[in-house]
Amino acid sequence: MSCNFTEKVSLLIDGELAPAEAREVEGHLLNCVECELMRADFLSLRSQIAGFATATQPVVQNRALKKILSGGRRAPARGLQWAWGTPAVAFAVLLIVAAITGFLIYKNSNKQESIAKITVPTPTPTATPEPPKPEEPKETETPKRTPSAPAKKPITREPKPGEQFATLTLPEPPAIPESTIPERVKSADSETLTAMHFERSETLLRAFRNVRLNEPTTAEEVAYERKRAQQLVYQNMILRREADAAGDVQTASLLESLEPILLDIANLPDKPKAAAVRVIRERVERKNIVALLQVNSTALARALD
Amino acid sequence: MASEDDEFTMLFQDFYPSLCRFLECLLGGRAPLAQDLAQESFLQLHRTAWGTFPAGEARFWLYRVARNLAINEFRKSNTRYRLFDRVVEAMRPAARNPEQEYETREREQLVLEMLQTLPEDQRTALLLREQEQLSYREISEVMNVSESKVKVDIFRARASLRERWRKGTDHRSQITKHKDRSAKIKSYEL
Predict the structure, then answer these.
(1) Residue B123 — very low, low, confident or very high, per pLDDT cuts 50/70/90?
(2) Do B81 and A61 touch (CB under 8 A)?
(3) Which of A40, A265, B15, B45 has the greatest CB tally within 10 Å of its CB?
(4) CB within 8 A of B160, min separation 6: which ones?
(5) N- to C-terminal Cα distance for chain A?
(6) What is the per-residue DSSP string for chain A?
């Protein structure tokens, strides 16, 4: 490639040269064998690449179109299926044990605090406010307000058919102690935060699944899980929006499935009925969300490694 | 709403196959994954961005999202897909003209393999140029880089492929010659 025109040959076959320059290069090609060969080779490559036949079948295409138009979601990616071997299972078990240990340590350190009173951090400005629906059950904990304080609208998410407890009532912002504010995105990147969020949510859901009903300690246990759900729900909203913006549909979809469950737990009353807890548990089981969280947190952690 | 859906359907039917092809070449021939990602790109367009910009720009938006999804896939471990794709490959129906089909497949495989040796940005730029016939300016918009970078990337990609193609065809012609010679020797022996 000793000729000065080599790069222009590429531009010439793409029609990206000005007419005068194109004429000049064409004139050069008549005298330069090297460039003429190059043009022939480039054109041959073009036909090879452009002639690549796609294996798409009309049936697949129509099915995809139907799914998109019906607003349906893609079936879980193959990565979400149970396709991992024994080492991955062992790793997952270790992860669960570590999470439970961490949870117990955290619980012990927080025993001094009053668990019954729960505060929620200030909502992000991106949350969609919506008036509370009259038909929704009044199980939301309503904090006492001072007479001078303006009325606060609850943060809601659009409820899907079959969902309940989509409303989360917020207390006054000044009442938030520093210790209850959840971790914010500061130094870590969103992938790390998502992995951590998945881990925490998984731990929460497992703990919630294990709450003993109709026992003297039930209220205390539920209050604790509710507090954690309230912390996680805002992080979930932020991460879901980030995943949406980044085009990571898999993560966004999982976070979207997780959100109503976190909201339901966060909205449980002080002394919840066993039926309400059972309904949430059934939804967790039906959506198989714990397994999905586990697989995703492991996959993300591995990707980050 | 119905007309919006009609418009979307037309766009889908026009560009879904070419988006699949683009992704398949970008991913090195993993057709099922390419179809998944193409579907994903259209799903995102339908759910989030449809109607927020002129329909003419949707194509560039799609290629941008598809490329990002493909890059996400590169980052993940790809062993499971390889295995899955091999199974799918084995289950494909037999060709009508096996000899011709074999030759086509072999040539396509060679093109795919050569494309995989290129850096991702060169590969994307070249595919958008050769398959989708986008101009340098359009490619620079899709890839969010300068036009001069696109120019250089495409030239480098071509030069690199040309070199490999020559080596590959030389190697193949040598193998063919060797096979012919062996066949001749065998026929004399008989």
Answers:
(1) very high
(2) no
(3) A265
(4) B117, B118, B122
(5) 43
(6) ---TTHHHHHHHHTT-S-HHHHHHHHHHHHH-HHHHHHHHHHHHHHHHHHTPPP---HHHHHHHHHHHHTTPPPPPPGGGSS---HHHHHHHHHHHHHHHHHHHHHHHHTTTS-SSS---PPPPTTS-B-PPPTTS-S-S------TTSPPPPPEE-PPPTT----EE----GGG--GGGSPP-SSSS-HHHHHHHHHHHHHHHHHHHHTPPTTSTTHHHHHHHHHHHHHHHHHHHHHHHHHHHHHT-HHHHHHHHHHHHHHHHHHT--SS--HHHHHHHHHHHHHHTHHHHHHHHHHHHHHHH-
Cα dihedral across residues B140, B145, B151, B155: positive or negative = negative
Q: Shortest Cα distance from B97 to chain A (angstroms)? A: 16
Half-sphere exposure of A166 (CA within 13 A, CB side): 19
Q: How far is B190 from chain A (nearest CA, A)?
A: 40
Q: Is the dihedral of CA A286, A289, A292, A294 positive or negative?
A: negative
Give the Cα separation of B123 and B120 in Å (integer): 5
How near does any CA of chain A get to the CA of B180, in Å?
A: 26
Q: Please check whether residue A65 is in contact with residue B20, taking contact to mean a CB–CB distance below 8 angstroms.
A: no
Give the residue on A whose Cα is nearest the Cα of B38. Answer: A64
Predicted confidence band at B169 (pLDDT cuts at 50, 70, 90)? low
What's the rounded Cα separation, in Å, for the pair A55 and A63?
15
Strands A167-168 and A155-156: antiparallel
Q: Which residue has the higher pLDDT, A76 or B17?
A: B17
Chain B residues whose CB is inside 8 A of the A65 CB are 9, 12-13, 16, 42
Q: Which residue has the higher pLDDT, A70 or B81?
A: A70
Q: What is the average pLDDT across A264-293?
A: 81
The closest CB to that of B12, out of A7, A65, A248, belongs to A65
Q: What is the mean pLDDT of residues A171-191?
A: 51
- A45·B158 Cβ contact <8 A: yes
Looking at the complex, report in whole angstroms how far the Cα of residue A263 sits from the nearest Cα belonging to chain B.
Answer: 23
Residue A283 near residue A161 (C-beta atoms within 8 A): no
Record: contact B43-A65, CB cut-off 8 A = no
Task: Report pLDDT digits (tens) over A91-124.
Answer: 888 899 999 988 888 888 776 565 444 444 444 4
Q: Please state, for a pLDDT cut of 70, what percent of chain A lies above it.
A: 64
